[in-house]
Write a structure and sequence with these properties.
Distance between the termini: 87 Å
Number of helices: 12
Order of helices and strands: HHHHHEEHEEHEEHEEEHEHHH
Bound molecules: phenylalanine
Helix content: 40-55%
Strand order of the largest sheet: 1-5-6-10-9-8-7
Largest sheet: 7 strands, mixed
Shape: rod-shaped
Strand content: 15-25%
Structural class: alpha+beta
């Protein structure tokens, strides 16, 4: 019965065989199935088996041999299957098509250019909330109590309940509110620009929108003069629109600056000669500016006897229109990819 035991042992050994590669598998084949292999040796012992056991052990030996063959074949198939899987393995993280490179929104391109110019002049960035209160948008900016901008016709007021329009919570109608925020937390010298989105209660047309973007500038220090303002704005205009650009300041009015001005640049299309773009004046308007009204400084706790400052505010859409000749403001917010794809920028 020794042979029978051996057969059983070898059988369970074979059932547990594994091979990690072809070489190991070939080793197993030689060990069990070659001419001098384990199975052949057991077969050799079969000769010495007594006649009454021959039938039973003969069947067992045959089963062992077949089991060994099957096992080796199965292991071989397993190795093949794995190998095929490696060769054709699909990378599920890859996109089925190349991802097209996006373009920057034209307003972002121009905003970045404006930021770049002013940061090179020593201005740093500041920002404030789009949902503001009356204090920062109007009161601290020296708006009279009955100023029309405080009217619901011009400014969006937030409805807190169905019939209660909260007069104190508004969508800021200009980035000048950030001036008030900055003055609350910083002491002069202050030199900031504040890009951001503003909202006005306007019907949407090609020339007006209920939201648009501005960049505010504020500079407060000792002895800041109108000449400083003019020089910085000239530098900005020439960086933005080219070295030959001229500027012109026209007297204007804003509650928060005194004196106030509006700035035109020489029309960069006709070079100032006059064309349909500049309505044959040779000039196009680009921003509002002025010396910070002493009242504004005082309302924010800055001593107007020691400090003075200038401020300016420009519409990013306006500058973008001038640079790219975009006639319809609505294009900026429609997200039509055919429009957006036209703008390639370096930054
Ligand atoms: N806040 C003004 C506007 O929205 C622009 C401005 C800013 C004018 C700063 C003067 C100084 O039209």
């Amino acid at each position: 019965m020794l042979l029978q035991e051996n057969i059983q042992n070898v059988l369970s050994e074979i059932q547990q065989l594994t091979a990690k590669d072809e070489k190991e598998l070939e080793g197993l084949r030689i060990k069990y199935l070659s001419k001098k292999g384990v199975v052949a040796q057991l077969m050799a012992e079969f000769r010495n088996v007594s006649a009454d056991q021959k039938k039973e052990l003969g069947i067992a030996l045959n089963q062992l041999k077949n089991a060994a063959l099957d096992k080796i074949n199965n292991l071989r198939e397993g190795l093949h299957a794995n190998k095929c899987q490696c060769d054709t393995q699909v990378d599920l993280t890859r996109t089925p098509y190349p991802i097209p490179l996006g373009t920057r929104h034209p307003l972002s391109i121009i905003r970045n250019e404006i930021i770049d110019i002013f940061t090179r002049l020593g201005f740093s960035l500041a920002d404030g909330p789009e949902i503001e209160d009356d204090l920062h948008v109007f009161t601290k900016m020296n708006f009279a109590a009955d100023h029309p901008a405080r009217d619901m016709q011009d400014t969006f007021f937030i409805e807190t309940s169905q019939d209660n329009v909260e007069k104190n919570v508004i969508l800021r109608s200009h980035t000048s509110s950030v001036q008030a925020r900055v003055m609350e937390t910083q002491q002069p010298p202050i030199r900031v620009i504040c890009p951001g989105r503003v909202f006005r209660n306007e019907t949407i047309t090609a020339r007006a929108h209920c939201f648009f973007h501005q960049v505010e500038g504020l500079y407060i220090d000792k002895n800041v003069s109108f000449a400083d303002l003019k020089q910085v704005l000239l530098l900005f205009a020439q960086e933005m629109f080219g070295k030959d650009t001229k500027i012109r300041l026209r007297p204007s009015y804003f509650p928060f600056t005194e004196p106030s001005a509006e700035m035109d640049i020489s029309c960069h299309i006709c070079g100032g000669k006059g064309c349909s773009f500049c309505k044959h004046t040779g000039w196009v308007e680009i921003l509002g500016c002025g010396m910070v009204d002493p009242n504004v400084l005082e309302l924010s706790g800055i001593d107007s006897k020691i400090y003075s400052g200038y401020a300016f505010g420009m519409g990013i859409e306006r500058i973008t229109n001038l640079k790219y000749m975009i006639k319809d403001l609505r294009l900026f917010s429609e997200n039509d990819v055919r429009f957006l794809k036209e703008f390639i920028s370096a930054n």
